[in-house]
Amino acid sequence: MTPETKSAYNTAEEWMNRLIIYNTFKKEKIPFYSYDEEFTDVKPIGRKSSGKIYKATLRSLRKTVAIKSINLTVDDAMNEIKKHQILENHDNILKFYGITRQGDYMLVYEYANNGTLRQYLRENYQRMSWNVKLSLARQIAGVIGFLHANEIVYEKLDSENIFVHNGKIKLSGFEIRRQSINASRQNSNSQYLESPGAIYRKTSLDRNSLGILLWEISSGTPPKVIMNDNREHVLGTPRAYVKICEDCCQPNKNRWPSIEQVIRELDEIDLSEIESGFFNLTSSLGRTKDVNMENGIAAEPDSFTSEMDLFMKNLFTFFSELFVKQHLDMMPICIKKFIKDHNKNPTKILYNLVSQRRPYYTSMVGFFYKHSIGTIADNKIALEFYSQATNGVIDERDHSSDVWQRMKKGLFDFSRKQQKRDPLEH
C-alpha cells in the first residue's frame, strides 16, 4: 500500500514528510495497512496519555486488532517499534502487526479481549479458582523478569496497564513507561557506569508494585483499598503466596526480594495443599476407632458408646485439626467430605450435636450453621454459638429461647426437604 496522494495534504512539505515516514517503514519491512481498505468495525475503546485506542477487524489477517494513534518523529517511532519487536517474542507481550494512517500514523497490534487486568478481576473474581489466580501471578512475575533481563524497568506496573487475552496476561510494549537500565551509560565514561547495586535499585519499584498486584489478584481488591496498613489476605490464600506479598511490600526496601526469587517462590507453591492436603486426614481418622482428644481438650469421663457418639468424637478431632493446619475457607469442604466419606446424614449429625451438652461441640454447631451443613445457613444462630464457645458458656438448652425455637424449626424444615431428596437413614 502507498500513502495518500499529494492532494490529501495541506503542503508539499507535509506530503514529503509523510512519504519519508512511509519509505522508512517500508525499508524496515514494517507492514503498512490502508485504513479505508483494511479495517472494518472500528470502535473507540479507550484513551492513554500517548493516544486514542480503537478496536477493529483487520481484513487481510482476519483478526480483531487494537489500533493506537501516535504522535512521534520518524526516529522515535522506529525506535519504539524496534524495541517492541524485540520484546514481543515473549508470549505475554502483545504482538505488533504493523502501521496504518488516519490523520496521524497508528500502530496496529494484538487486541486483548478480556480488557485490563482490573476489568478482568472485577468481572471474574468470584468464580476464579486458585489455579487461575496463581497462573496470573506467575505470568506477571515471569514477564517482569523478562523485561529486567533485557534491562528494562516497567515503572508503572498496575492492573490498569496490564491486559488479559483469553485469560492470559498481556503487556503492551507501547504502553510501558520504561527506562532502559543502561540508558544513562550510553554517553558516559566508564568510571560513571552504574554499579550492579544501582541497577538492582532501579528495578525495586517494579518488585514493590508486583507485591501490590499479587495482593489485588488474591483479594480482587483495587490498590486504593490495599494501600493501607491493613492488608489482610483472603481466607484460603496459600501461606507462601502471602509471604511473597508481604516481602515485596515491607517498609525496608533493601529487603525486597529479587524478581528471580519471586518467580522461584511462586513456582514452588503447591495448591494441592489447599485443595486436598488434609483430606488424607479423613482417611486416617476413618481407620481409627479411638482418637484421643487433642489441643488440650480431654474426653469426658463417660465414654462414647454408640457408633454416632464415636463418629462425632472423631469428627470433632478432625474439626480441631483443621483449625490448626488448614486454610479456613477449605474447612467446610473438608468437613462435608469427612461426613460423606463416612456415609452420615449431616442433618442428623447436627441434631445430635445440638442435643448434647458437651461444651467442645458448641463452636462446631456454630460452624454448621455458618456454612449450611445439615441446615440452612443462619448467621445469627452461628454467632450465638460462636459467642458461647468464645466465652466458655455451655448452652443449657433453654427450649423457650428464641434461638432454640428458630434452630428447631430450621432443623425440621431442612430435614424434611433432605428426606425427600435423600432417604439415607444414617
TrEMBL record:
Keywords, comma-separated and alphabetical: ATP-binding, Kinase, Nucleotide-binding, Transferase
Lipid metabolism is among the record's keywords: no
Highest taxon of source: Eukaryota
Stored Pfam families: Pkinase (PF00069)
Domain Protein kinase residue range list: 39-319
GO molecular function: ATP binding; protein serine/threonine kinase activity
Protein name: 812_t:CDS:1
Provenance organism: Acaulospora morrowiae
